[in-house]
Description:
- By secondary structure, the chain is α/β, with parallel strands linked by helices.
- The chain is 34% helix and 20% strand.
- The protein has 30 helices and 31 strands.
Amino acid sequence: MSGTKIKNGPSLLPDPVARHPGTAGLPVLEILADLEAALASEQRALVEAPPGAGKTTIIPLAMLHAAGTSWLNGKNILVLEPRRLAARACAGRMAALLGENPGQTVGYHVRLDRCAGPDTRIEVITEGILTRRIQSDPELAGVGLLIFDEFHERHLHSDLGLALALEAAEAFSPDLRLLVMSATMDLESLSRIMGGAKVIESRGRSWPVETVYLPLEAARPGSSRPFYHSANKGFDILPACRAAIAKALKENEGDILVFLPGAAQIRSLAEDLDALAGGDPKLFVYPLFGNLSYSEQAAAIAPSPAGQRKIVLATPIAETSLTIEGVRVVVDSGLARVPKFSARTGMSRLETLAISRASADQRRGRAGRTAPGICYRLWSPHVHQGLIPFNRPEILQTDLTSLVLELALWGVTDPSDLSWLDAPPDSGIVPARELLERLGALDSRGQITEHGRSLCAAGIHPRLAQMVICGEQLGLGYTACCLAALVDGRDLIRGIQDPDIRIRLEMLTKAASASGRPRQKAAGQVLAQARNLAGRFNIKTGTIDPESAGRLLALAWPERIAKKRRAGSLAYVMASGGGCEFTGENAVSRHDFIVAVDAGGGAKNARISLAAPYDPADLEKDFSHRLKTRENVAWDRSTRSVRAMETLAYERINLKESPCPLPGPETVVPALIEGIAREGLDILPWSKPALSLCCRTTFLRGLNFPEFAGLPDLSRQGLTGSLDNWLAPFLGGMTSASDLKKLDLTAVLKALFSWEQLSALEAQAPTHIEVPSGSRIPVAYEDETGPLKFPVLAVRLQEMFGLTATPVVAGGRVPVTLHLLSPAQRPVQITRDLENFWKTTYAQVKKDLMGRYPKHYWPEDPLAAPPTRRAKPRKK
């Protein structure tokens, strides 16, 4: 590579690139000098450049050429691309500009495919490759510049890679330069975490694109919502896409790029369009998504031969980085498959959601990369205004188990030790750490174990890696690969309502001989994934053992092992403590133990969609280190006593129970207190004096007089809430309800009072009041409705002759309510004004009662008459 280094854009490029007609006039040429200077002096930079500016291919070549003899110092450049297709295409484009083939000056490295040689100076890699490279070589030996391209996509590994790269540059490789490039991003926040990196902006280069909204308000049967509404997840977008494609073919020239949410929709629409293209020898249909072979992907992005036309059906893989030559029309479904954490499976699952406005603009721009174009949006302008502005970063919504494991491998237990554009939330970190501890990948301090290193090196979700690695050790490796393919966020065998995962495994064994129909085709796709996974782990393909599914799934979902709550029930309790249930009987629900792989809904009653039977004997084989024997001392309602049971448990599931001797009072007494609280205070031996003590004390406390505020709370609520305080000290040696009968509750309660308080209680709330006849009559401070505001004194009328003033309590401040009784002990008057009774009412009462009780004493003047307990007073 030769050329003269002078401070202008084209001359910073190698001669073949500068002379290439495809680079002439690229807007990014204007910023190359400023960018090179920023990297030379400050080592950090940010480039914001719209699609079509040329940043992806021109900047790496320019920096290699311009800095080759200065700050790059003979080292190489790594370019991070978020997608494999973009990585290969980017490397191929740069190599072509140099007049070379990939693997010479420019190479690439993606999963399962590397094209690089001894002369490679620029290597385009994907996110997982970068993570593995930094983890294995923190110094990034031989690398002078690391470029993060299309950072706005904010994949989890992009955020992780930048965080690791920033620390690696600071701690291990101070000469490493870092460059972040994107079409749209939070420049201020990025600059801050990169130590004030300089922001360099480039113009874009694109042709005008007309936007046409086609709000086809087709709704599902029985629904009034438009198809685009988020609630219509099951709506088939394909009819709207077919209508828009037909319109585009009729009204426009050039190739058509159609954005669809996922591969399933692409395959289905491709079959329909193939029939259409079959009638036109000049029209071709190409799918474009991540799992296609490189040759299939290359065919989709290659220019159409003269006189031909193509329709490319793509996932969001085609939003950025790639330029598909000849595209003049974009049809945008407005949907994307986005990874989000699923509580149903404990992993991330792809969900179909509406795209952001930024993504919509990126897609629209694909129609104007090489000529004027048109974009058909299958929604309305009103809906467009309601779209979120930018894509939500994966780190805020996806499963963080892999991230936590990578951080532990890096030596970080607290994510805040690193610099993040968006810090991973605790709501994702905490459950991820708990799961990794269950899997044996982290120790109790959060540090990685040797087993954790193996899981991390596997390159798949730690759950699935656990299942495959441990399954291979059990001789069930290939079955584990098949299970991993089935539950990797997608059950590709659709339409099976039965939750038994063994049915799906049995289908895989028949997939090769039952091709053609959709379900068998889907099984074949799963089987292909399983074989690919087996190859990565050097596992030989072989027979599938459906009956081992439970054991294998438990290795990956140990918290989803579940035990039936009771015989005949469809409800289970999981090891995590949550609940789950089947909606109906099935082959799995007949088993007492299961593994509930997919269960959605509330934490207490999640509905099981996918499960397998589980043999509890496998717990002792595979989880002996997590089985715990604990002694449980608790109140047994059936025997009304405290019992001690020795329980063998796996987390929150009790496996076996057997009686054992009761321990000492320090354990038995709290259990006895718990039993009393559950049974209620009526289990205690209440005597009349004890009840009276409670009633009188509660009465005085209810007066709200300062001198009574310090009295103990002997109300039922107060006593129930303070059993530990007033009762526990007297329960030594007791274990049952029969033992409680030995308690002297009056003495127990009096222990709560001081001598002064008891004296005040006797004086201010006496148990009895002496009436004029000499009788000591009990005072009632409570009735069946509860405490009384005015205590009641029920006394025969004749015993009150001669008394004018109503008796009082509480130091003379509260009159009692007199229930004046007939000789038959029935109330004839209720009053708190005895004097007024004698004056106004007694005469009528006397008249009413004399006829019925003629033998009794009914004086004319009750105040002058002697009181008596007899029918008539004694004669003197």
